[in-house]
């Protein structure tokens, strides 16, 4: 696939590539990273810059003792390597793993640095993405230290539901529980227990115990090993979270 073909398949990409110099476009390559594969590894020398046109990935930090900490998850359009390049560092600071298939347009780091220096549009977009990630991280920083596991899991569930169309179901009155093309009847959290452990920041035993407890309390069901919840359960979780904040 060429960059032009990728732009046709993902029109939002054009806002990012519209001022890319022609010689850099000619050297651009498109690659698909399969779900579950590593896009790049922590402490790897960065020789490229990528724009994620399709897919979802997660950013994790791996430590020598084997522990893994999930920093954030991102959906297209997103960047690969922008933090390392903007920071002027040679090696990556995190590992990026594909959650779904990721289609990425790649150019060399040298080309990226020249493009960023000459095109205010792509520089602004890269800076805005980086600033948003920092804002999101700092806004939520500390939650894992001060909230109980039940709060962390339900908060994660609500955010996942919102990202997958549940938010618009609130306040629909008589239509609650009735599916529409935009508001799903239920949502399944497509994460393994290990991924949930890393993203929420609790150990496996605590996570499994919390899942059992919240399932018994009716906040969700388990379908083929995955957390699944309806609109009513989604709204019940929101009410519970709001009540906990008021305590």
Automatic annotation (TrEMBL):
Domain annotation Cyclic nucleotide-binding: ranges: 12-116
Gene3D superfamilies: Jelly Rolls (2.60.120.10)
CDD domains, per database record: CAP_ED
PROSITE patterns, per database record: CNMP_BINDING_3
Protein name: Crp/Fnr family transcriptional regulator
Biological classification of the source: Bacteria, Bacillati, Bacillota, Clostridia, Lachnospirales
